[in-house]
Known about the structure:
This protein is of the alpha+beta class. It has five helices and four strands.
Amino acid sequence: xxxxxxxxxxxxxxxxxxxxxxxxxxxxxxxxxxxxxxxxxxxxxxxxxxxxxxxxxxxxxxxxxxxxxxxxxxxxxxxxxxxxxxxxxxxxxxxxxxxxxxxxxxxxxx
Length: 110
């Protein structure tokens, strides 16, 4: 993508734990949101899963949240303010000076 867009800058975009946007990964530290069918309907991942897959998974999540198993299994996440899930912001076009600090990012290693 960097080459196809002739991007001059690649920035990591860590997802904050309290992101309000609501896309699927936004709830990485708030799994109880996935129990809401409205939230699941807004997620392309859930929308493409057949009920035979999604319903048992949601039932397991509900049980794990009720028992505390999810929080025990993922305790390390609960102390994180943000997570890098691989999202990247690519900046392309004639930038003149490159990045805001005047340096061009070496995209060959991004």
